[in-house]
Amino acid sequence: MFKKLVANLPFNPSLIDEVVGYGKKTRQEVILRKLGLWFVLLAVFIQGLIFLHPPQQSGSDNGLLPMVIGFSTAVIAGYLYARSKIIALELEIIRLSFVTTGGL
What we know:
By secondary structure, the protein is an all-alpha fold. The protein is built from three helices and no strands. The protein has helices spanning 2-7, 16-52, 65-100. The mean pLDDT is 80.
């Protein structure tokens, strides 16, 4: 695509905007691919740490992990509850607006 655009530039100088847009899009794709590669490397590193960490015996000292999981679950549940309330309120406003304008 790039070669085709550049080859036609002498005949149609207005294609320079498309070449610039293509360059920006290509640059964004490169950045996205690098970011994806970093996330894959991070995931492999974390998997390696998990593999090398020996399992612990269960006991009364559970550590910090259950607290973190519980707190994260509570935060996510609170967010989803608040989001559902906001969506319900927006739907009610839309319904009232529809009814007051003469719909149904």
